[in-house]
Amino acid sequence: MGQFVVRGGRRLEGTLRVKGSKNAALPIMAASILASDTVILDGVPRLRDIDVMIQVLQALGARVWWEDSQLIIDPRHINQYVVPAELMQQMRASLFVTGPLLARLGRAVAFQPGGCNIGDRPIDLHVNGLTKLGAQSRTQDGQLLLETVGLTGTEVHLSYPSVGATENIMMAAVLARGETRIRNAAMEPEIVDLAQFLETLGATIRGAGTSDVRIEGRETLHGTEYTIIPDRIEAGSFALAAALTGGQVRLENCLVDHLPGLWGRMREVGVEVREVDAETVEIIAPKQYRRMSISLHTNPYPGFATDLQPQFMAFLLKVPGVHLISERVFENRLGHAREFRRMGAQIAADQRVALIYGGHELYGAQVTAMDLRAGAGLILAGLGANGQTIIEGREVIERGYENLAQRLSQLGADVTTL
Ligand code: EPZ
User: Fold this and answer.
1) What contacts 122, CB < 8 A, 6 or more positions away?
2) Mind listing the pLDDT tens digit for each residue in 240-263?
3) Per the database record, which ranges form the Enolpyruvate transferase domain (predicted)?
């Protein structure tokens, strides 16, 4: 396992351009399976998870290659329907290809997905949704086998607004017969991006971004060129890094409206968040954080993003007062509290709730990134700590952040990789 080495105590200053969204790019790449011609994607970040999705598509028979910054997917010769087990184990998002495969080939075979270790992460909502559209499903020796003689539009009510299940069902429904309605759908910006991409392929989707999404099935979809939205989680991570180092950073290619929960919370403790325009924001930390108590709950969009919770916890460690974070999306996503404690943080936490005693000095230590966003939180804590922090699990963090050490260094941080 590689490491990030962070020497703390430097203010971040300057301008940073946010990369394209990992969590929008992954389902859009999977949705390319549905197209009858080449798909050209702009703004796909160069990340480990993207490489895994490229390998999944190639294993299914697609031709996929980079041309400078563009990712080209030629899905015309897709004829395989088994998602290789070793790729599924590396990334949960490999499951996204099951909906498109069912719609295109009438079959999909997948394995129990891996990915970040943040809770049980069942796949029942995906399977139930696809079954409602007319798939037969069974499990055998750890394999999930899905088959259909033809998908038919229907109404699917999700018991929880799962991002991945909403996306998978949308992708299957665009080639189904008739109209599909998804109730209690997830409303994340990544869902809207997927819907817009599918529309450029010729699909008709109404209501994406609300809890009631309607998809009209089509016989075929054509190719397209499409630009992925900026990564709101990357933007939020850099904004919090700027704030906790007492810095001043301008973020470009940042869709300000995509982080409704974050800016308000940052302003509450005295950070100046200047919305320069719809795609540019400036973060200016106060000279000193005033004592106060922050209470934060993660929730599905437009609630506070669970993917920013560890980074926000790192930030709160700098704000004097007693703070509460309650994690409501995943049942086991507070493991980073233990790692923060190695750095001198005063935190009491169980699996769902953490009490943070902020405003105490942090000291460099050797810590471990158990998952991608926890790793980002540890890097942020390292930036605000005295001395050197070594974060084990570089590969985990690089699943979701492109050139992180280099880009933080450009803003004045002292971060290297080993
Ligand atoms: C997406 O995961 C993101 N991943 C996650 O980002 C993000 O944390 C999550 O949405 C929530 O915002 C991608 O987009 C690739 P969910 P997903 O289905 O789709 C339960 C990151 O760090 N659930 O909305 O897997 C589940 O256990 C990653 O970039 C079921 O019970 O999230 C969880 O408690 C990590 N049954 C809740 O729903 C199901 O069938 C939310 O999961 C599916 C989900």
Assistant:
1) none
2) 999 999 999 999 999 999 999 999
3) 6-408
